[in-house]
Amino acid sequence: MVEYSTCMCLVKGIFYHCSNDDEGDSYADNPCSCSQSHCWTRYLCMGAMALVLPCLLCYPPAKGCLKLCRGCYDRINRPGCRCKNSNTVYCKLESCPSRGQGKPS
User: Fold this and answer.
1) Measuring CA to CA, which residue among 68, 48, 66 is closest to residue 57?
2) How many other CB atoms are there within 10 angstroms of residue 50's CB atom?
3) Per UniProt, which keywords does this protein have (predicted)?
4) What are the pLDDT digits (tens) for 29-59?
5) What is the pLDDT at residue 51?
6) Secondary structure of residue 25 in the 3-state scheme
7) Roughly how many angstroms between the first and final C-alpha of the chain, as a whole number?
8) 66-82 burial code (b ≥16 CB/10 A, e <16)
9) Angle at the Cα of 69 (from 66 to 12), degrees rounded to 5?
10) Whether pTM exceeds 0.85
11) 53: burial class by Cβ within 10 Å (0-12, 13-18, 19+)?
12) Which SS3 state, helix, strand or coil, does residue 3 take?
């Protein structure tokens, strides 16, 4: 909803059609990223588009507000630890009951 209300979907569409990246990993997916190549070119292009589409100027505050609201919601409704780099814990064969034993009745 944030991308549609701030016209970011138009920017992504324009960047998608203007990119020459055939692998699918283009900067159209995240045009505001500084980690990809041609960062200043994208920001210059978005600045020029903001003259015609002033709703683009609302994208950074709207995205920040959304991130803040998600964080507050998660803190209230999902208490506990949520590690980003958690390892999956698997059951060892010795500690798990075998399939043939102990069928529930």
Assistant:
1) 48
2) 16
3) Cytoplasm, Developmental protein, Membrane
4) 788 888 777 788 888 988 999 999 899 899 9
5) 92
6) coil
7) 50
8) eeeeeeeeeeeeeeeee
9) 10
10) no
11) middle
12) helix
